[in-house]
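User: Show me sequence and structure for the first protein, then do the same for the second.

Assistant: Starting with the first protein.
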Amino acid sequence: MCKPDKGWNLPLWGLAGAVFAFASFGGAADAADFEIHSAFPRGVAFISDSEERIASLIQEHTHGRLSVRMYNAGEVIAGGDVLTAVQSGKVAAGFGWIGYWAEKVPVAELLGAMPFGPSPATAVSWMYGGDGLTLLQDAFRPQGVQILPCHIVASEAGGWFRKELRSPDDFKGLRMRISGLGGEVLQKMGAMTSAQPLDQMYPAMAQGKLDAAEFSVPMADMSIGFETFAKNYYFPGWHQPSSWNALIINARVWQGLEDMDRKGIETACRLNTLWTLTAQTGSQVAAVEQIRALGVSVRRFPDSVLLALARTSRDLLEEKSKRDPAYGRIYRSLITFMEQEQSWEDLQTLPRRVPRP
């Protein structure tokens, strides 16, 4: 990563601030440039669509006062440097998976991928109907950025495995690519985990250096070619039932915006979150059917495996919560909200096999 600038470099701020030069409100012709630097490369399935929508929605809901341009990873700055660049004022805004920023904001790993965490719908309810947004922004404020959740990620798959899993003991000695908290859980269960980027993951599978790999949702997984090496595709994605991608804006840039434009950006992010929540399920179902057609066995983890994973996940999250008060606040808030939602669903959920009218 690039070394963060120390303090606020005013000459640099003059350059970064130029992208937010305040224009008169005479219309789109007078729009101020608003550059967003994504941590994702160009062309990633669904994410690139989401980025385009965010840009369009911000322009629409600031009534053309901001003219948005999205840069992808490597075009101006490296994807791993987005948070540092926004903090320092080198760039005004960034977009990426919240979990990428866990090195500086440890609780980001919890919001990036909480094992046995909330479903996408429950995560959205907690973020906007509970105290999620306040807790998230409080966690990132010391970093000198304003964070706005803009994209809820669908539940991921559980991973591609060369061999069928029958019991928790099958994780012992298993070489698996899986990152974040999910990787820590599997380490406790005896697996040897690694977190290779995609460009290294496929060769590792091809060379027999991995027994299993987890990457993303089915619509993204199917484009990689994992079925060549692993014929068992497991669900559910216990390690990441939901996740967030977010917009981060330099705090001084955010404070310098007109109130109406701050509200316009917030509205754009909420609308894009709604779109991502509703647009993904159908695509995943279609992708799973295409994966089946390639001769892959689509399976659920055995209940004994899921129970062992859940117990280990709970122990790990409680350990981390005791060490970090901020981590504990968000963890307890999420757990309490999930329990409340579950009590309501227990009353209202119809049996799955009831014939539809």
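Switching to the second protein now.
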Amino acid sequence: MRIFTTLPQNDLNQVSTAAAAAEAAGFDGALTMENRHDPFLAHAVAATSTKRIELGTAVAIAFPRSPMVVANACWDLQTASKGRFALGIGPQIRPHNEKRFSVPWSAPVPRLREYVQALRAIWRSWETGERLRFEGEHYTFTLMTPNFTPASTGQPMVPVTVAA
């Protein structure tokens, strides 16, 4: 059995100490969630404050963010953590998408499936240098110029867990 804890998100000045303490205490990982604060930012601090524990979101809300934006955040965290970051992502409910984030609602299962496929296509393009060509019903990505292409991480592809 693996044991995870959460990172403080309300004060980034506490993240480094909390992440190091979690690692020293033997936790297997540290997670963040998307409530009042960005779920990715604390991991940037934790990635540079730890060496062993896994880091991940549980969960980040997908639809208010383009897959390209999430791909960039995860890529940077995977690089900073030397391969210890995992993305937990979910759709959130319709009222939050429409009224809180002002994004259109559509059937969440096929849209989230396509979202994850887009993430993987983007990451594959960055890792291998192959041309980015992803065309789906909800997302299309066909432009990736050298100026916007991150360097290969040399790490495994970011694992993705989907929440319903």
